[in-house]
Amino acid sequence: MLVDRRKLFTFCGSLIIPSISFGSLIRTPWQGEGPFYPDTIPKDTDNDLVKNGENAVEAGGKILILNGILVDTDSHPVNKASIEIWQTDKNGVYLHSGSFSRDNMDKQFQGFGRTKTDRNGRFFFRTIVPTEYPGRTPHIHMKLWREGKNILTTQLYIHNHPQNKKDFLFQRMSLAEQRINSMKLIPAIVKKTAELQTFVKIIL
């Protein structure tokens, strides 16, 4: 990762992180990883999914800064956890050999990324707003690891997206869980790096 991109990520990752509230919290629900976890991990696995490798051309779609914080049910930050996300490109194609519409894949989109939580449990990704595809509402897959153990697998959804009401996995969650796993998208503060931003709290 280039030095200027490190500085960019550090700045973007500090934009809308709120203070941590104390008290017992509802755990983020487990959800299946689905059939499209990458069958071949790309060479570039950083937290900027919009740029694939050293290519200067960015992926299509609305660029999203996904800020987050990882805490336990007592609101204590969880540091040094590895977080992976994967999702479809703007055309609804996964980074997987079995994905539908492979001929329409946006090769500028990394499709998969990793990062680690800092000492305050914070993390962030630069990606695109997820798109819907037949049978599913827009979503971002997320898998968390700590000390080699998978501690959570879940999916993030767009708050109040009309397809949520028809999505079988979204509807399996309670209303409280749906709120936890929903991303409210707002205009990005730094327009040069993204169009939209969001914040999620992941609770173990």
Give a short overview:
By secondary structure, this protein is mainly beta. It is built from three helices and nine strands.
Please explain how this structure is put together:
The chain is mainly β and 204 residues long. It contains 3 helices and 9 strands, in the order H-E-E-E-E-E-E-H-H-E-E-E. The strands form 2 sheets. The chain has a 5-stranded mixed sheet. The longest helix has 10 residues. The chain is globular, with a radius of gyration of 16 Å. The two termini are 29 Å apart. 37% of the residues are buried.
% residues in beta strands:
25-35%
Shape category: globular
Number of helices: 3
Largest pleated sheet: 5 strands, mixed
Please estimate the helix content: 10-25%
Please write out the topology.
Layout: H1 3-12, E1 63-71, E2 82-86, E3 112-116, E4 122-128, E5 139-146, E6 149-158, H2 168-172, H3 175-180, E7 182-183, E8 186-187, E9 196-203
Features:
204 residues; four-stranded mixed sheet; mainly beta; five-stranded mixed sheet; globular; single chain
